[in-house]
């Protein structure tokens, strides 16, 4: 995927990767869609684990960044990726080939993330010590990181649900994206101030918070999950049924909060069932954040399914397509959630215990895997892999269109 775009329905998509080679007969090598998808997931998983051991692992890494400032840097890197690649539609200098093009884009994203983390922890913290890097257990980094929870919602929904309305109608890239980024700072900071600050600020009274930090994380991340479900898996339905783009934006904004609340109770219930009563009891009130812990496993597979598995199926009826995509990604999320918490986090990633028989924090490693996937698939265009076979239905439609146009050409 060399460059992101938005379909008329608002669904984020991208162009197919540049072919990495040709077969001996001169034709471009291709992979079946499922092989292409699995190959991308394998590359991402291996790269994520190796980079984890090198940069983050609490036992093996010489860097010592776990859990902070790793988590803060990770969250800001993901939102910087959204800004650069989706809001502004840029994945590196077009004049460069891969992997140089993608590497330049990745460096830009990492530089933005590092700059924001440093500005908050060492600059703005002189005004508000709630953000200070010196706070115990990385709490200052965590305060800055929490801003991104709200940014995820607004900046992603603007692309996948709103199709960048109203900015794309008035400005061309990258100016539309820059205007979008600047405008959505306001609602991001307003929600951060109202919902999060009472829980994390050194000067605030936690008793005034509308909900605990754990519940806030679980619920609001579920609203982000709603954005991804509707924008990616469901082809922006039901919002795309509305005739006006303005109405689509307004209704999807409200609708994703409603759907997100439903998803919160569903994913929290699923997470409690999967981890078992002993772990639920040990986690206490903090268990409400596990709606987000399950949600991030689902988001990983929804992004993968839409971007490297071709968002299959596409040949069934509309309702059947959406149901199958939802069920398949949910099943994969359950397997990933169980595998991460009961096997990978402790034995492979060496993360500390959580609960009775759990290890780790999926909002850390699984979001890291999401970032690695975005870097590899979006910026690097699945470099090194042959492209997926073209969809047969799409190829047939294109052939018919070309033949029809040719038949109409004057002799």
TrEMBL record:
Coiled coil: none
Keyword Membrane found: yes
Entry keyword Transmembrane: yes
Region spans: Disordered: 1-25
Keywords for this protein: Membrane, Transmembrane, Transmembrane helix
TM segment ranges: 33-54, 74-90, 102-124, 144-163, 175-196, 216-234, 246-267, 287-310, 322-343, 363-385
Biased composition regions of type Low complexity, renumbered to the chain: 1-24
This protein's name: AAT family amino acid transporter
Organism: Actinomycetospora endophytica
């Amino acid at each position: 995927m060399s460059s992101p775009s938005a379909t008329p329905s608002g669904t984020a998509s991208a162009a197919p990767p540049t072919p990495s080679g040709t077969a001996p007969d001169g034709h471009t090598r291709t992979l079946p869609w499922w092989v292409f998808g699995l190959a991308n997931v394998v590359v991402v998983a291996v790269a994520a684990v190796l980079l984890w051991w090198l940069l983050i692992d609490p036992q093996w890494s010489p860097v010592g960044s776990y859990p902070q400032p790793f988590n803060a840097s990770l969250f800001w890197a993901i939102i910087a990726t959204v800004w650069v690649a989706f809001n502004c539609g840029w994945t590196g200098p077009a004049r460069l080939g891969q992997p140089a093009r993608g590497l330049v884009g990745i460096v830009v994203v990492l530089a933005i993330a590092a700059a924001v983390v440093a500005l908050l922890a060492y600059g703005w913290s002189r005004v508000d010590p709630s953000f200070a890097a010196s706070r115990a257990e990385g709490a200052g980094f965590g305060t800055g990181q929490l801003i991104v929870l709200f940014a995820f919602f607004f900046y992603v929904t603007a692309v996948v649900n709103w199709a960048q309305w109203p900015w794309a109608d008035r400005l061309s890239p990258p100016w539309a994206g820059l205007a979008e980024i600047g405008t959505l700072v306001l609602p991001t900071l307003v929600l951060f101030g109202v919902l999060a600050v009472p829980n994390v600020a050194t000067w605030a009274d936690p008793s005034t918070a509308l909900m605990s930090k754990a519940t806030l994380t679980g619920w609001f991340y579920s609203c982000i999950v709603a954005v991804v479900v509707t924008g990616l898996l469901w082809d922006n339905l039901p919002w795309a049924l509305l005739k006006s783009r303005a109405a689509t934006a307004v209704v999807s904004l409200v609708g994703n909060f409603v759907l997100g609340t439903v998803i919160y109770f569903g994913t929290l219930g699923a997470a409690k069932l999967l981890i078992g009563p002993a772990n639920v009891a040990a986690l206490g009130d903090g268990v409400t954040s596990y709606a987000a812990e399950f949600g991030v496993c689902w988001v990983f597979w929804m992004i993968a399914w839409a971007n490297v598995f071709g968002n299959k199926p596409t040949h069934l009826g509309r309702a059947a397509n959406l149901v199958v995509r939802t069920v398949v990604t949910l099943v994969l999320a359950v397997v990933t959630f169980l595998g991460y918490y009961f096997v990978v986090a402790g034995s492979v990633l060496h993360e500390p215990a959580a609960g009775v028989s759990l290890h780790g924090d999926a909002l850390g490693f699984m979001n890291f895997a999401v970032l690695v996937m975005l870097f590899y698939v979006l910026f690097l265009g699945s470099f090194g892999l042959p492209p997926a076979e073209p969809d047969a239905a799409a190829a047939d439609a294109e052939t018919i269109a070309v033949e029809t146009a040719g038949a109409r050409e004057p002799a």
